[in-house]
Design a protein that fits this description.
Elements: H1 3-19, H2 25-33, H3 45-60, H4 67-78, H5 80-84, H6 90-102, H7 105-123, H8 144-166
Length: about 170
Amino acid sequence: MTAEQDKQRYQDIRQEILAGREFSLAEVIGREGGDFLKGESPVPKLVQAITEIKVFIAQNIADSSGALQQVLQTWVEEDEASVSRHLQTPIVALSEILESIINNQQLLYELVRQVDFRWGQIYDERPYFQQPGQPPHPDDEYTHESVQQKLIELQEKVTFFVIQSNS
């Protein structure tokens, strides 16, 4: 069977199927819209990028209770501007976000405060909130220094990943 015969047979079958249908705007939209997303994912690029970052965080951060991971993932979701600038390379966006937190004490303190709060929710206990310039409580899992160190370690993994991806 030639390509022309295949095309004609397809047209005949299509006409037979459509013969019993009533014409409607919904039918036309349905027929024409079938090719609209051909080859593209129905999931928006921004959602794909945020998901990739969240998976990277989950797989690469050392966080036994998970509070830091959850809060950091929330910060990534809320920082759509940074992620939008790097839709093709979302891990670079994570690098920028981490760098901004590591290098800005106020952001770091706010992140730690939110992580402590989340820890309290997870364990249904009163969290230990370290105040800037004050020593941490001995039982505080998330101190300014410990969170900053975990973010630096994650940043190193991000850098290694970006270098590996570019080579």
